[in-house]
Design brief:
CATH superfamily: MFS general substrate transporter like domains
Helix content: over 70%
Shape: globular
CATH architecture: Up-down Bundle
Structural class: mainly alpha
Order of helices and strands: HHHHHHHHHHHHHHHHHHH
Largest sheet: none
Number of helices: 19
């Protein structure tokens, strides 16, 4: 059973200010991340790569560069996690925000393949790597800034708000794209209009950076930092997390697998499927996604609150079981080409995703002690993104091209759900646990997984 204690954490306006600061940066970074994912389908395949035999060839090449960002994310998570555990969450979050802003603005400046040849995709890959590196460091710090300030009994709700910032970033990106595609001709958008969306990120970065200068690290972190200063032998970083908490790291990776894969099938591959297979117009797709992201934003805090009431495990398990069947109903729904039915397919996918995604910050924060928490959750969260999120659009496009059917894609998602369900079964319920309790000394002979 988890250890319960008196509620800890910030209250009222102070906690809300911390939530705003955490969300501000996450909105920026996911605005830019979603922007890239959408442009991979709409622009990059045509602009930065040599022409192929079919429309899917260019899109596939663009999604390969998309995957580079995911490959960089674990490295970013490990580097930011190590220094974030040692020096604090706030300062590292400011660095990550600047990095992703510079990389995204730079993407808007890259000349086309026709202008500079293969230097175009090379520059795209380099900037995508920097972007992924920064996003990899963002998530752990953002959610821990809130989770470590939250009272024990409501950690699931409060720490779900940084997760809800993801659809907000997507809403902003979709709104900008919708405005540009609806006011510009296809030729103008492909020529220069798409660049404006990337350049606008500079404004959002400045706002996010300013907000983040007005928060402090949580008392539980400050206490752990003071304790570590008196024991210089205390170790930080990913190697210590793996050595002391191998089960927690492996479980976190397993929890992410189906959730991450499903998200990118719903919000990224569905754009390709609707555009290429269903032959839906870009404006129509973006309008549907805008509404779906709005509902996703509303659902995440509700699911987070539910994990505080009934527990982390049952909510997550429900999401996993429902995700296993989504592909079998969603793609046939899209095939109808009926706008309402397409919207329902996307919304169902995002609501199911919320059941898994909302509880992750609290659940993963409760797996590790404070001195290695940033490293531990970043490792568990980001490494899986290579095998799940980065490859999901690539594998889905390849399966579609090979079999000309959505059924193999649905089977692919169902298989991933089976992996994640095993991880859920291995969990112990941690709802209401005291984070400070995880930092209390244990017997010297207890070296591994001392908190579970």
């Amino acid at each position: 059973m988890p250890h319960h204690s008196a509620p800890e954490g910030s209250r009222g306006p102070a906690l809300r200010r911390i939530v705003y600061a955490s969300m501000a940066g996450t909105i920026v970074e996911w605005y830019e991340f979603f922007l890239y994912a959408t442009m991979a389908t709409l622009v990059f395949g045509k602009l930065f790569f040599p022409p192929g035999d079919s429309e899917l060839d260019g899109i596939l090449a663009a999604f390969v560069t998309y995957a580079v960002g995911f490959a960089a994310r674990p490295l970013g998570g490990l580097v930011f996690g190590h220094f974030g555990d040692r020096y604090g969450r706030k300062s590292l979050l400011q660095v990550s925000l600047v990095l992703v802003g510079v990389a995204t603005f730079g993407m808007g400046c890259i000349p086309s393949f026709d202008a500079i040849g293969y230097a175009a995709p090379v520059l795209l890959v380099v900037l995508r790597f920097v972007q992924g590196f920064a996003v990899g460091g963002e998530w752990g710090g953002a959610v821990l800034l809130v989770a470590e300030h939250s009272p024990d009994e409501r950690r699931g709700f409060w720490s779900s708000w940084p997760q809800a910032a993801v659809p907000v970033g997507n809403i902003l990106a979709t709104s900008v794209l919708l405005l540009l595609t609806s006011t510009l001709s296809d030729e103008a958008f492909l020529s220069w209009g798409w660049r404006v969306a990337f350049w606008l990120s500079a404004v959002i970065v400045l706002i996010g950076y300013y907000v983040r200068t007005h928060v402090t690290d949580a008392p539980v972190f400050q206490a752990a930092q003071a304790e570590a200063a008196q024991h210089s032998a205390e170790q930080y970083g990913v190697f210590e997390a793996v050595r002391r908490y191998p089960r927690s790291v492996a479980t976190a990776m397993g929890l992410r697998f189906a959730e991450n894969l499903m998200y990118y099938l719903v919000v990224t591959f569905s754009i390709t499927y609707l555009k290429v297979v269903v032959e839906t117009g870009t404006d129509r797709i973006l309008r549907l996604l805008l509404l779906a992201h709005t509902l996703h934003f509303l659902a995440i805090p509700l699911a987070g609150a539910l994990t505080d009431r009934v527990g982390r495990r049952p909510v997550y398990a429900a999401g996993v079981l429902l995700s296993a069947g989504w592909g079998f109903i969603a793609f046939p729904m899209m095939d109808t080409a009926h706008e309402g039915i397409i919207l329902a397919a996307i919304v169902i996918g995002l609501l199911v995703h919320a059941l898994m995604y909302a509880g992750q910050p609290a659940l993963m924060a409760e797996m590790f002690p404070t001195r290695i928490r940033y490293s531990g959750i970043s490792l568990g969260y980001q490494v899986t993104s290579i095998a799940a999120g980065s490859l999901a659009p690539i594998i889905a496009v390849a399966l579609l091209e090979r079999y000309d059917s959505s059924t193999p894609i649905a089977l692919y998602l169902a298989s991933a759900s089976a992996v994640t369900f095993i991880a859920v079964l291995s969990l112990r319920e941690t709802r209401g646990i005291s984070l400070a309790a995880l930092d209390r000394p244990v017997d010297a002979h207890q070296h591994k997984e001392t908190h579970v």
